[in-house]
Amino acid sequence: MKLRVDYKASLRLVGTVLKYLAVPLCFPLVVALYYGESVLPFVLTMAVTVLVGMGLERLAEEPDIGAREGFLMVATTWFAVTLVGAIPFLIEAHGVPFVAPAVHPESTLGNPANALFETMSGFTTTGATVLGDISFETHTRSIMMWRQLTQWLGGMGIVVLAVAILPELSVGGAQLMDAEAPGPGIEKLTPRIAETARALWGAYLGLTVLEIVLLYGLHVTGNAPNMDVYNAIAHGLTTMPTGGFSPEARSIEAFSAAAQWVIIPFMIAAGTNFALFWHVLTGEPKRLFRDTEFKSYLGIIGVISAILAAVLFVGDGLVSVAPVGETYDQFYLETVRTAIIGNVEPSLRQSLFQVVSIITTTGYASTDFNAWSSTAQYVLLFAMFIGGSAGSTGGAIKIVRWYVILKSLRRELFTTAHPEAIRPVRLAGRAVDERAIRGIYAFTLLYLVMFFISTGLLHLDAARIDLNLSVLESMSAVAATLGNVGPGFGVVGPMGSYLDFSNSSKLYMVLLMWMGRLEILPVFVLFTPEYWRR
Amino acid sequence: MRVIIVGAGQVGSSIAADLDSTHEVVIVDCDPERVDELNYSLDVLAIHGDGTSVDTLQEAGIERADMVIASTDDDETNIVVCATAKAVSSAFTIARVKNTEYLRTWQHSEKAFGIDFMVCTNLLAAESIVRVVGLPAARDVDPFAGGQVQMAEFEVEDESPVANQTVSEADRFDSLTFAAILREGAVTIPRGDTVIRPGDRVVVIGSPQSVQGFATTLSPDESAGTAEEVVIVGGSEIGYHVARLLEERGFKPRLLEQDPDRARELAEQLPGTIVMESDATDIDFLEREYIGDADMLVSALDSDEKNLLVSLLAARLGVERTVAVIDTTPYVDLFEAVGVDVGVSPREVVAEEITRFTREGGAENVALIESDKAEVLEIEVDENSTLAGKPIRESVAALPEGVVIGAITRRREFITPRGNTVIEPGDHVVVFVDGSVVGDVAPKL
């Protein structure tokens, strides 16, 4: 155990990650070249990442990573990549003085707070957007591809990726992955942590490619008219990380029912513990359906979707007149109603798509669920807290935590009647360590406290700038950013954006997304004096 | 057959005493006084020495030995004794262990450590305890013919409905045979007009259903079957295995363990058991948890005295039946006399298991009644058997007194033995044999 936090070692590793960020930046660069767009946003950013990265690398010779350095490194990495990742957006909107003019000066990402928000939303796979206009008129295809790529990089985790490919992280890598990986604890799949990280990224990459191929296949066979190569790649890159940045303003509503049906299982897969895929591929497919969390996950999706589908089918889940204060196209509402009510396939598809999208925290929308009744919306708000499985790319509280909490509450009831009874909380037959249970309680409580305080702050700040928000809208905005879900309701709904919030609110939500992705505790611990003292 | 027994403790001496009349027994122990004592008390050759050393084993005549039984109180010693014996001879080796992990390792190959047969004290004790669960008033239950036949020993209480009835009155079951009545230490082979007196113990052989039915007749007030509420006191290895075996049979037992760490460990290993961390002599606790309402309490603490105390306390609170683990074999009778319903001695159970394994003849399975007063044998009948091919009435007449054909299974079907039943070669027969004629009868069957 070290006496003091070796922050230089942490920053050095952040530098290494930053330096290698230049490699993924090549992808939008290629896209820019292909479409004949300006390559400046990417070339300049690459220069920055390499320079800053190499500068930070000079801080320490051989970094030695302990648990505390791990927290600092992981938390800082996410902030650092966000700062650098925002540069292309700024260059696109402002250009570079004396070198190049702005490509799209009308882009809302010219505001640094917005650029930061969009980048953090991307890397944390939140999918909340501040784009004023999601179209190729106001943004280049390459800059949109960068926006999508941030989600893909953030999905399985930049740090996990770093552990997978950087030999200098072979020692201490487990600590780093533990600090970053969603859910309580990590499961070592192989004796070497780098191999575990590679296995997870391999499964992630494989599923992404499969989805892109299938989506494009639909296009080729004429079943998905709008799903061209660009869109297939864009949606592959944003489904598997449960991100939700679609280059289409209407999100997945812009595509055919067939494309929507293809995306649903991939969202479900993205919300599944990736270690399970590894087991399936290494010859233990039974583990998938023996896994308690996976079974509960499918069960929860099934039950909630069935309820919503029924509500939609009979028409109770849809509004017929836009709520007061909303500027809804009455024609749109009517179209949606006639398409869904009394029709099995659309009501099933729409409810399943939205429920899966919200539970896995992907944040795509196959319809504007602002046009749903408030009952249906509260069900979705509730689903925002469930989250995906541990070890998935999904956010929020996660099923395994709820499962452990419910079981330990039942245990509490039992031991009230039988004080001497010893009852371990079991997860798939194995007893859960009491310390882990305490950690789960702490996390969940902190999550809910953060949720309520933030809702209050956001609501007040919105009132300050005369932005008229309902409580449901404020709650959904916080739940969607803290849980890395993306869209909320009302103004921040699936077809809307977070643009109207004040800069201070947006920066606050940047913090929320950051905390949500790192699961709060690693962030909070950085702000305790105990962490910095020995 | 030359048998070398290493370890002259209770188990070793008990096996030696069972075998000395029929085999050439050499017993090895490192306590010189114990060795002297055995040389005088039993018809065996007792040698002083370390059973793990080749020299000692050679002194005991290992090269001529047919069987080596390692029965010291130490698992590792027993394993080394067997491995050593295997290295220098071709004797059949039997080891007694307490740790079930060794048993599991051995079961993987049935050859591990150079051991040919391994018996696990704790597991055997637990199994014999679990067998009496579900049979009210049963003191001992042994399965035969792969579970198709059960032998059970019952105690007849004063208020029992069969007390003072004749055997033919008491026998209300088709597939049940009254094999013996044990009265004041003597074995009687009952006839139809024999009167069953209170305090007698009856040995019955029959199908599990009929034995169950008889158990219910004996004590109609006690609940029977799977609804039993079992409390296990003490999370020893035996306590753990009792809970585990009961879980396997669908029970939801309660287990009391005083040590917090052990209690937690047990709770993690036993998903179907409610583990409670408490002192089993805390009367407030026992009352609060309604322990008195339990059908059965198994006391498996590590001291005989505590087990006696807990059993008596439980009986007083109203537990229907108490089973106590008793380490010191001679205490079994004493404890049963003062109020423990069933006393189980792990050492006796192991000695019995080893003895039954070493029995000569074609017996598939043996149960000992009252240590050696009588035996229940399961044999597969072949052409040369006295029993083959004739009605039981005739074959029994050809055998000495004290033999009862208890049950027959033919191709895993239960057949009730009656006077004119003809036994065919290949049948499995469960026979009750009085101890005094076993030597005579066994070779003829």
UniProtKB/TrEMBL annotation, chain A:
InterPro entries: Cat_transpt, TrkH. GO terms for cellular component: plasma membrane. It is a multi-pass membrane protein. GO terms for molecular function: potassium:chloride symporter activity. Keywords: Cell inner membrane, Cell membrane, Ion transport, Membrane, Potassium, Potassium transport, Transmembrane, Transmembrane helix, Transport. The chain crosses the membrane at residues 12-34, 40-59, 71-91, 149-167, 199-218, 258-282, 294-314, 378-404, 440-460, 507-527. It is found in: Cell inner membrane. Belongs to the TrkH potassium transport family. PANTHER family: TRK SYSTEM POTASSIUM UPTAKE PROTEIN TRKG-RELATED. This is TrkH family potassium uptake protein.
Automatic annotation (TrEMBL), chain B:
SUPFAM superfamilies: NAD(P)-binding Rossmann-fold domains (SSF51735), TrkA C-terminal domain-like (SSF116726). InterPro entries: K_uptake_TrkA (IPR006036), NAD(P)-bd_dom_sf (IPR036291), RCK_C (IPR006037), RCK_C_sf (IPR036721), RCK_N (IPR003148), Trk_Ktr_HKT_K-transport (IPR050721). Residues 139-220, 364-445 form the RCK C-terminal domain. The keyword NAD applies. Keywords: Ion transport, NAD, Potassium, Potassium transport, Transport. Signal peptide: none annotated. GO terms for cellular component: plasma membrane. It comes from the Archaea. Part of a potassium transport system. This is Trk system potassium transporter TrkA.
